[in-house]
Amino acid sequence: MKAMTSTLALSVFTSSFRAFGLFTLLASSVSLSAQAKDNNQPPPLLVQIDEAREQAISQLTWVPGTVLSVIDANLASEVDGRITWMAEVGDVVKAGEPLVKVDDTRLSITRNQNASNIARWQSQVELFTKRLARYKNLQASQNTSRGELEEVEADLENAKQELAQAKLDLEFTEYQIAQSSIRAPFTALVVERLQSPGEYTGVGQTLLRVVNPDSVEVQVRAPLNVLPYLANGMSVTVHNNVNQVEESIRAIVPVGNTASRMMELRIAINPSDFPIGSAVRVALPSSDTHDGVTIPRDALVLRKSGTFIYQLNENNEAEQVKVTTGVGMGDRIEVFGDVNPKRSVVVRGAERLRAGQKVRYNDERESLTAKS
């Protein structure tokens, strides 16, 4: 009886174990199926995005320009003499500080001569003043002639004029001594030495070439056909291979060259934007302005069926939008189509996207990751 009971218990346990194993196997199969289904969904694709922008649009013409200092001067000496000292090329000298010194020994001697002449004519004035007083007393008592009195008066007036001239000579000599030290008329960067210390320089002979490094602008030669679309203060794009800035037109010279039919523009820039003498390119409007939507050129996806862009919805899903292109504006281009200017566009990785695919992205403004 005990053997039969044990056999029956063992049979029940075995049946229960087999049922539990079958349930576990079925659950595992369902789990694997769900996992396989999830694995068929591609993970969010890493892309780069930018903004679709509503802005004023016009056709742009790129023209060459040159960065130059507003003040580019060749400095000369107002006195002649031997150069005793000169600033080095590359020195930046503040306004009022010396750039060149010329030997002033000869001028110092002349100054002493001027001082001597002043003393001599001062004594002559005092002498003729006293003599005139005596002659006036004699004239009052009628002990001298009128002609002698007038002669003394003339001598006194001549001495006064000579004294005034001697003072002017001293003032001029002092001025020349001051000018023997050529000082910077503005904050000056020494670009070139045209003479060297030890050489003799003459009046008006160029010594140094200097520029003002704090006052910089772009000189542009532009075709006359863009003149109707330009205005002073208008913002334009200036760029070279390493930098791009938005600056304002300072001056327009609406006079064309008879040979090239080009006019001149001046665009004020910050001294740190570009080095003086560098070549840049400037984007000038060459058509009427209208409002539209622009995107980066890199956002366009070209297919045989047409041109597309991908915009992101609130779920970070890529939506394909068919577009046509319009006016190009540098690295951006006008587009027509069902483009939402409030949504970002994909500029990197768009060629691998499918409509509805989730993405994750990084840009300079923010860093977000779409939910899986």
TrEMBL record:
Lineage top rank: taxon: Bacteria
A Gene Ontology term for the protein's cellular component: efflux pump complex
Domain called YknX-like C-terminal permuted SH3-like: residue spans: 293-360
GO molecular function: efflux transmembrane transporter activity
Signal peptide location: 1-36
SUPFAM superfamilies, A to Z: HlyD-like secretion proteins
Keyword terms, alphabetized: Coiled coil, Signal
InterPro entries tied to this protein: RND_pump_MFP (IPR006143), YknX-like_C (IPR058637)
Coiled coil start-end: 135-176
Stated family: Belongs to the membrane fusion protein (MFP) (TC 8.A.1) family.
Protein name as annotated: Efflux RND transporter periplasmic adaptor subunit
Organism: Alteromonas portus
